[in-house]
Design goal:
alpha/beta, TIM Barrel, eight-stranded parallel beta barrel, two-stranded antiparallel sheet, 6 helices, about 25% helix, globular
């Protein structure tokens, strides 16, 4: 069964619905320039209400180790890092998944060119760092998913997630804008539809 991550959480009711519907991960964007930005206070308010089956993920852009560990103290259990430099890993004691995009020159390659077993594969946007609503090339994503665990992000919606899972066979799928009424506010009808479609796996 493909795991499901609901990202861009800013409200308790959205996180609790995602958890009740079977999400494995909920993501809090801890980058102030995001339209879905959450604060550590938001994390502290929401994470205690989540079941132990749901992993709270902090999404960071070029963080310091201290920033990641402050989020861990607030309730974050995994860090999703958007950065080309790996130096931040020193001193980080929670699991880390790095965001990558498809390489320009290698059909089955990613950038940054890392060998991590688990990666989050998203559409490349050096400004927004995710949440763009743009899909990646699923054919190429499938090649990458054959050799490592891939969390597939980028442009997923209730209408295409089932096909994405069928074609890519990812470890997990990740959605933000595809289930929103506005950035950071989840549409509960779309969220329910996405979760149902993602579970209709072939």
């Amino acid at each position: 069964m493909t795991a499901i991550k609901i990202c861009g959480i800013t409200r308790r009711e959205d996180a609790e619905l995602a958890a009740s519907l079977g999400a494995s991960f909920v993501g809090f964007v801890l980058w102030k320039d995001s339209p879905r930005a959450a604060t550590l206070d938001t994390v502290r308010q929401i994470t205690p209400s989540l079941p132990t089956t749901v992993t709270p993920v902090g999404v960071f852009v070029d963080p310091t180790a201290d920033e990641v560990m402050a989020a861990a103290d607030a309730g974050i259990q995994m860090a999703q890092i958007h950065s080309a430099a790996p130096s931040f890993l020193r001193g980080v004691t929670i699991p880390v998944v790095r965001a990558v995009h498809l390489a320009i020159d290698r059909i089955d390659g990613v950038e940054p060119d890392i060998a991590d077993d688990l990666v989050l594969l998203d559409a490349h946007d050096p400004v927004k760092h995710g949440g763009t609503g743009k899909t990646v090339d699923w054919r190429r994503a499938a090649l990458i998913a054959k050799s490592r665990r891939v969390i597939l992000a980028g442009g997923l919606t209730p209408s295409n997630v089932r096909q994405a899972i069928s074609e890519v066979r990812p470890y997990a799928v990740d959605v933000a804008s595809g289930v929103e009424s506005q950035p950071g506010i989840k549409d509960h009808g779309l969220l329910r539809a996405f979760m149902a479609a993602a579970k209709e796996q072939v």
